[in-house]
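Hi D.,

Good news: the full-assembly prediction came through. Inputs first.
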Amino acid sequence: MNDWVDIGVIGDIPRLGARAVRAAETKIAVFRTDDDRLFALEDKCPHRSGPLSQGIVHGCRVTCPLHNLVIDLQSGEAVAPDEGRVGRFDVRLVGDRIQLDLPGARGRHLELA
Amino acid sequence: MREKLVVVGNGMAGIRTVEELIERTPDLYDIVVFGSEPYGNYNRILLSPVLAGEKKIEDIILNDDAWYADNGIVLHKGKAIVRIDRRNRCVVTADGLVETYDRLLIATGSLPIMLPIPGRDLAGVMAFRDIGDVEGMLDAAAHYKTAVVIGGGLLGLEAANGLMKKGMQVTVVHLMDVLMERQLDAEAAGLLRKSLEDRGMRFVMGARTEALIGDGGRVAGVRLADGHTLPAELVVMAIGIKPNVELARRAGVHCDRGIVVDDTMLSYDGRIYAVGECAQHRGAVYGLVAPLFEQAKVCANHLARKAFASYKGSITSTKLKVTGVDLFSAGEFSGGPGDEDIVMKDAKAGVYRRLVLRDNRIVGAVLYGDAIDGAWYFKHMRSGTDVSDMRRQLIFGETNLGDSGHGGGDVVAKMAADAEVCGCNGVCKGAIVDAIAQKRLFTLDDVRSHTKASSSCGSCTGLVEQILASTLGSDYSIAPKEKPMCGCTDHAHDVVRKTIVQNQLHSIRAVMDFLEWKRPDGCHACRPALNYYLVCAWPGEYEDDYQSRFINERAHANIQKDGTYSVVPRMWGGLTTSSELRAIADVADRYAIPTVKVTGGQRIDLLGVPKDRLRDVWADLNAAGMISGAAYAKGLRTVKTCVGAEWCRFGTQDSTGLGVKLEKMCWGSWTPHKVKLAVSGCPRNCAEATIKDLGIICVESGYEIQIGGNGGVKVRATELLTKVATEEEALEITGAYMQLYREQARYLERTAHWIERVGLSYVKTRIVDDPDGRRALHERFLHSQKFAQFDPWAERVAEPGFDREFNSMKELA
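Then the structure:
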């Protein structure tokens, strides 16, 4: 069972860009590709914890702004020859609203609403 | 229906071409490969270290069976093609297998030349060409004592060295009086011979082998033309190779020494390509790996129907893979009329260097004992650099000229495996050597992406290149003259720039479409470069693509390791006021900024600002009259000054005032890399102007303008561009210089590297010797500045919806 949380509209994120969502202790980066696909990853590079939401988005990948590690947006895995992976979250578009699957966030979402 | 590509030859050339092809178009062909050896594709040039016991056979396998399977390639191992039927477009193996083709790639390599002398069929007589030979030699070394190697060339000496290390007593018989006479002059060859003799190798020079003497079916000795006989239980013939073209010749494909190909690697048959040692291009046949890689790229480009690459031939270099012998040779050195020699010799230290110059260009280089600068000389040889500007120091190598990051000395060989090479990423020598061997790396870029060494500040690039060269020997392919921008394209920076202007391309998308980018929206390397080229080409017209800028230029602040930012307001010429300082202090208090630091560029850095507070910090600094210092930009950073004639008892001119004028003229400009200026009021040079991109030293009679300095990774002092009498002239020259750098340097190329590439003389010609050209450059700079001199902080603060980009999208409790 998913816990979908509304986080905004697609226009909030520029194409080939990202925005960060803060959920308690966790920061989540939500990415938008050139063809308007959305992906969400933990905003923390596996290399030295750089904020992936600040990186350059290209294709279905993001390059970490700190040391250029490249992460695949779909799997959260570093692109070879780099190694490492970050946690990923499901994200979907309903109309123009972006919804993020945050397990256990349902109660908080109700509070927010 | 897909076309079928059949590759004859499972060696380095054929498979490299296939790799390049599937990188470009993975789905265009069904690929079938035939190899006569019973192995996968292996690195033939590393056979010497295998023989010497420094590597194992499994270490040199390049592509294992899984690779072929993963890429859907059918591999027939141990199946030699015996016939090409061009009429029916098929090939036939020795055991009768028939395979049809739409395109055929012949990469049959070469065959060792065997002396046609009596006894050559005896057991224990072999060539040095493939894994089978190496296994035979290792077997002989385990059972016998004496060996003779016929041929004192590169291959022969490597074979002799390997056998010696395996405990054999080795004599090298060479026809000429000079070892490696095609690569070395007599002087260097003498040093080499002495060094090898000291290790126990024996030489018989100027000797012709007449016959091999047998004993019970196995070779027992070598008889020379002068009647002497050398005992030999193993004889290795290493007198040369010849292109393996019989198959092609019998099929009627036009062959001379090799299969004759054009600049696209196509033979006289429009369906048959040839690459590697079997191909003959513009009269030349190559026996080294570097040209083969270039050929493979071109051939793959045409097989993939891209049809724009062309092969123009290669200049090759040689490095002997004998551990402990440091030797490099490239180009011509026999010395024609008009050639000039620069020679350095230190016999006791065993160091010899000779450069051959023609028309102020390096055409040949022989280095013995200290080959560290081989790659650097070779680079200049290939690019045809006019070396007159550096002629006086040339022979001492790159270290003495201060290019980007050579460590100096032949340090690599002496480094321990756990010695750190890359200080930025903490990579030691052993890790690089292992990665090269295990992950089959050939180029600097390979090493960068696999180990991260040399991928940050680049100061260890020289060391990494040396490690590559010493690990791979002549296998090491020095970066081509014109490197592609990145993996997204085969085009080099200069080509892309020219195309943007000539074809009136006004957006990143247009450039990528026009030049057929391999990845739809590029990568973090090419997008910022393209964005800059467009900014530079179309001032006022091109709309900056922020998503193609690195975060610092998007956020107008410098990202720090914890994801916070640092903020640096501009201080014109390093001048500030009490009210500015008060405002900065207030900002620091108000936003609890943890660190306030004075920078090297005479400004104040506020560190540790969270992204969502940037707006407030900027607004407050703006309110006090300050603007962004662009400390994050590939653009003008600072103009450092001393107090000059206004206060200083030694000051000759108003250096502070000139610094402010320069900064007012240049701020806001986008450049290929960061630009730092300085003005010193007298030759004591307190503003350290001689390590800046442009530095002005004031003297009583005017202003000395210095360019191309660098105080970072590798300190490089500036060189004098010219001297002028007035501030106006100094400003015009600075503007022209900025614009020339903006228009000509490649993205991320500092002025120091740019000037080393194009030469100081060139910059002088454009800026000093050509007043009209200088004025035009200066005017173009001022024109582009009209569209660049906006404070990004004020713009962002005033922008509706600004918060969107800089705040969290959503805060969930």
